[in-house]
């Protein structure tokens, strides 16, 4: 614990506060509560085990003790317009890819829009990201961002389509993964914040594009209203929306939805 604190907290790492707990229901829920009580900007909460974690679209995320990296961070990016906060989950995705490149350079990693981590030649999902706004009270508005990363979860405990870093040859320890990830998260968010949340000015949009496997792929986007869109994913706009050119139609900017990468044999 001391070594972790030394590596990630100020002055070495830039983070303000760090807490590690043995078990919790949800690190996001816990840190949201702490934010309401005035927890400082750039606080970190890590759990060895999480039993009621939440993912996007109200999915659950349960972490096995000792096999995952389960953490949440609190950011209070004063001066950044609210309409730019949607970049934070995508920023975290870029940080994840870069952290894996640091600790496991032989493990292929990329993003599926907006923020699912794909790992290995078969591009299995290895991590999920969830961002939630804090209450206005208790130190001002902020964002709690949670990351669940499968480091060494056994294959038989993973759902279909999921994978872990260890399954693709990771030899680094979980502590080394945490230090690398928090380092990249801090630097990315600091640059983005200094640019007023402008994803182009700080290079975030360009870097996200280069790490997003969805771009240039034929996709099916399942949207929250229940309909779906099939076409070519062409780009990400300055607001972080996925630009899809549907079959026989005009380009559409997608703000939310689940993306499925289609193979040649797949049908809408």
Number of strands: 13
Rg is 18 Å
User: How many helices does DSSP assign?
Assistant: 5
Note the gap between the termini.
49 Å
Rounded mean pLDDT score? 90
State the helical fraction: 10-25%
Q: Assess the beta-strand content as a share of residues.
A: 25-35%
Determine the structural class based on helices, strands and strand pairing: alpha+beta
SSE arrangement, N to C: HEHEEEHEEEEHHEEEEE
Uncertain segments are: none
The main sheet comes to: 8 strands, mixed
**Gross morphology:** globular
Give your account of this protein's structure:
InterPro entries: aa-tRNA-synth_II/BPL/LPL, Biotin_CoA_COase_ligase, BPL_C, BPL_LPL_catalytic, Transcriptional_repressor_C. GO terms for molecular function: ligase activity. With 268 residues, the chain is an alpha+beta fold. The protein is built from five helices and 13 strands. Strands 1, 2, 3, 4, 5, 6, 7 and 8 form an eight-stranded mixed sheet that branches. Strands 12-11-10-9-13 form a five-stranded antiparallel sheet, with no helix packed on it.
